[in-house]
Amino acid sequence: MKQSQLFMPTMKEVPTGADVVSHQLLLRAGYIRQIAAGVYSYLPLAKRVLHKVETIVREELDKVGAVELTMPAIHPAELWQETGRWDLYGPEMMRLQDRHGRDFALGPTHEEVITSLLRSEINSYKKLPLTLYQIQTKYRDERRPRFGLLRGREFIMKDAYSFHASQEDVDAMYDKMYQAYSNIFTRCGIDFRPVIADSGEMGGKDTHEFMALADVGEDTIAYSDSSDYAANIEMAAVNTNYVKSNEELRELEKVNTGSAKTIEEVSELLAISKDRLIKSLLYIVDEEPMLILVRGDHELNEIKLKHELNASTVELASSEKTHELLQVEVGNVGPINIPSTIKVYADHAVAAVVNGVCGANESEMHFKNVNIERDVATVEYGDIRMIQEGDVSPDGKGIIKFARGIEVGQVFKLGTHYSEKMGASFLDENGKSKPMIMGCYGIGISRTVSAIIEQHNDENGIVWPKDVAPYAVHVIAVNVKNDEQRELSEAVYERLKGVSIEVLYDDRKERAGVKFADSDLIGMPIRVTVGKQANEGIVEVKLRHSGETFEVHESELVEKIQ
Ligand code: ATP
Ligand code: MG
Ligand code: MG
Ligand code: MG
């Protein structure tokens, strides 16, 4: 590709409003442009990176037997009403009406669509298992779109869905996907950790998030270098196996209802640090709510978490309200509205910080009938203190550290939640009708591009890992007006193309300084500079990641850089 023909609008200045390095570099290096908050054009260089990532994803998914299809981005409301998610999804769902006033959504995810597709076509165990995926634009009206491609409102996702006749089968697919994801992110050059995430199920074995380690990440993960344990901190709060004894729980029960408590009192009550508690509250107010349950004497407690509370008090008030509350599955993952007040009603609940991410309506979030024996003790939601740095990991093999992570992917066992609600069943060997067992697996393709840049950059620009770089080699003619330099540059360009090396050739009539700065900024792994020694056929090779340079005769170039 000749650079004079490429659309690659670079800029020198750091654009205002871009707070994280990947966002800044994507803009400065001419990869993306914003059209509305969280909505971007992918310019030619970005398109090539996306394509590289997608190719890696396709190759790894093909290996595990997943098959590609494309589903619509426009979804009729009726499908989402079948699962109840038309209401539950809240304002994150982009909604529209057609000319007849019928409701539609722009798909934020595709469980409903794929389940409806499969229920009409698959009716026998003989046709299972089946794993389908697509790479497609998704729409989520995020409350706070930010950080460029990291949190967009229109973004590219790979979403896969698997359908099975037995639990063993979905378990096996889950493991394969887990491995495929590990391969994908490794090939993308990402330093990542798969972490136990919140599934609302026992032990958190049923979902993992793949976290790219980065300080700008919105998630905190708890991990240990000398053990395999790694969990999203939300999950770590409930999965540390530090289950308190019944005595301790009963002690906690005594500290109960009716009075407003200070942060200090609550932090003591919950046995977590004040800092952490405030952080949790900030998190609740700022991001997705956590559920804080306070054990009371079979009474319902209402904890109001108000905005003002960030730094001051948590109000604990007993409530007359009993069982009229909305049923919410603890741990049910769904997008939520950020309420200004979160009310938690807990029947016979325990003092605990349980990770929340629950369905919520406009102004408040309710929990009904949370029962300590059933919901806490027996499902091992038991830890009533969040894991902390310096703790021994639950497997006893290491010391816990915290790190920030960007969720680049998630794998999930869905069970029969959707297939039951939507009537997607099959006949087993004995002719008995059963709901299909499902898994789903997402990767944020566009987010992954940003995550790569977060991990691969220096003060001069992007430093692409080889397998995802837009071009492998950047050839620079220092002075195109010089015949020898221009001719050699073109010969090198043709030679590289001839052996299928992807090459970008800077043939512009620009000053050398501008060309070098742009070259560093856009970040191809190998730069080949054709300058003064062109008359001897000598070019300079510079490796972007190490800065190492060497001179080579153009006839040996291919051999030297491969
Ligand atoms: P997050 O916790 O960051 O909001 P999520 O858990 O809501 O993400 P999933 O529903 O698991 O996202 O979607 C699968 C993948 O899609 C995520 O792992 C992430 O990589 C990507 N993704 C989700 N939301 C966005 C977004 N707003 N912009 C870009 N990528 C996204
Ligand atoms: Mg989300
Ligand atoms: Mg998430
Ligand atoms: Mg997720």
Automatic annotation (TrEMBL):
Per its record, the protein catalyses: tRNA(Pro) + L-proline + ATP = L-prolyl-tRNA(Pro) + AMP + diphosphate
Any idea which UniProt keywords this protein has?
Aminoacyl-tRNA synthetase, ATP-binding, Cytoplasm, Ligase, Nucleotide-binding, Protein biosynthesis
- Which example biological process does GO assign this protein? prolyl-tRNA aminoacylation
Q: Does the keyword Aminoacyl-tRNA synthetase apply?
A: yes
One molecular function GO term is: catalytic activity, acting on a protein
- Which cellular compartments is it found in? Cytoplasm
What broad class of enzyme is this?
ligase
Domain Aminoacyl-transfer RNA synthetases class-II family profile, residue spans: 38-465
Q: Does the keyword Protein biosynthesis apply?
A: yes
Q: Which GO terms describe its cellular component?
A: cytosol
E.C. code:
6.1.1.15
Transmembrane regions listed in the UniProt entry: none
List, alphabetically, the SUPFAM superfamilies matched. Class II aaRS ABD-related (SSF52954), Class II aaRS and biotin synthetases (SSF55681), YbaK/ProRS associated domain (SSF55826)
Q: Which PROSITE patterns match?
A: AA_TRNA_LIGASE_II
Family stated for the protein in its record: Belongs to the class-II aminoacyl-tRNA synthetase family. ProS type 1 subfamily.
Assembly behavior: Homodimer.
Indicate what this protein is called per its UniProt record: Proline--tRNA ligase
Source organism per UniProt: Lottiidibacillus patelloidae
